[in-house]
Amino acid sequence: MKLALSNLALKADVSQDYLRTLRSRGISGIEVAPTRIAPWEELTNDVVDRYRATLAEADLVVPSLQALLFGINDAQLLGDEAAFDIMATHLKKVARIGTRLGANVGVFGSPRNRDRGNLEVQAAWELGRERFGKLARLVADEGFSLGIEPVPEFYGGNFVDTSDAVIQMVDEVGHEGLCVHFDTGCISLGGGSISDAIQTAGDRLAHFHIAEPKLASLRNPSIDHADAAKALKAINYDHWIAIEMLEPAGTASDDVLFSVDYAVKTYA
């Protein structure tokens, strides 16, 4: 199992000792939300290289990115040409940051940036397929890919918001720059079966999140993670699995290590 932890769960000034502790408990990668390193405009090559080197000192790599469009509110998948151009330009930058960090996939969640608005369902689908295709080709040129996440209504999703829709979109675009990403929290909150989704996706599944609703820790899980782990094993899943949770507050700081231990025990 290749297990990562989102840097959303880490303090901004995380120490080398703590990173080494994560490594000793079974974490071998850190999934990066880039603005947890620095604001977009400050993510220079030197800043990115220093972050990668810091992780490397603890024998950790960066397999993936998330929060790709955080703060880029004018970027719209289904908006006018200008809004889509903003998205394309930004994701080109994200892909370069990702590959410089060593990552080859980014989680495309961002429900506000893919809002369907007033578009009819079929019109939105056709436009989305065309534009996902453009984005796939764009990021693939940098050695990167976008993993579409099925974001449910609970998080404001209204376009490609189910596992079946993600699979269909990836199949119709048919390009290596676009892949299937599943999240236990998103699929559960959308009313789907994570086990069924995994089995349907099969070898199209390229990235996976262990997550609870609202990105809570795994201390009191509401999702059947054992069932998800069983399904992943059944399809011989061999890509990265990332724990997605927010940095705990106050006295709950040990929830990160608890969650890591739980994930190792459940998914290994």
UniProtKB/TrEMBL annotation:
The keyword Isomerase is assigned to this record: yes
Span of domain Xylose isomerase-like TIM barrel: 21-254
An annotated Gene Ontology molecular function: isomerase activity
SUPFAM superfamilies: Xylose isomerase-like (SSF51658)
Keywords assigned: Isomerase
Entry superkingdom: Bacteria
Key word Metal-binding present: no
Protein name (record): Xylose isomerase domain-containing protein TIM barrel
Organism: Asticcacaulis excentricus (strain ATCC 15261 / DSM 4724 / KCTC 12464 / NCIMB 9791 / VKM B-1370 / CB 48)
